[in-house]
Amino acid sequence: MWGRVDDRAAPRAWHDDPHAAAAGSLPRRPHSRRDGHGGLQSGVPAAKEQDAVFVAIESLGEHWTVKADMITAPQHAVADSVYDAVRAAVIQLLRAGEIRSDSSAGPVYFVLHDVAEEGRACELAAALHAALYGNLAPLARAMPTAS
Q1: Which of 53, 58, 66, 134 has the CB geometry, 3.0–4.6 Å to 112, for a possible disulfide?
Q2: Where are the domains of the chain?
Q3: Is 85 a residue whose pLDDT tops 90?
């Protein structure tokens, strides 16, 4: 389950299946949604129905936030090695200055604050989504390179 919220435009939500997430694909089928909670809450019930991890990006002024919530998928198991890889990726993003220090690496709720560009937020969201379904390759590719 994907969602996109932009305070400059109508909220958008995408629905993907776990197989697409495991492949690291980006959202494919946009559906406009409006609700009283900035758009994010509109996708959560659908994610719960599908027992899917909910992933969204949200525009906050000039920066973006990536969010992933596993509470919507209580039957979904994630290996300890995946949590370790996600934590390491968050640390790497922090050290590179790509996200704020109050970002969170789970284990149930993940948030990456202050991503500079929408495209980068989408890339990180897709990588996180794929990782939570066992495919760590997109997460590795999304990491900043040393300069």
Answers
A1: 66
A2: 2-142
A3: yes
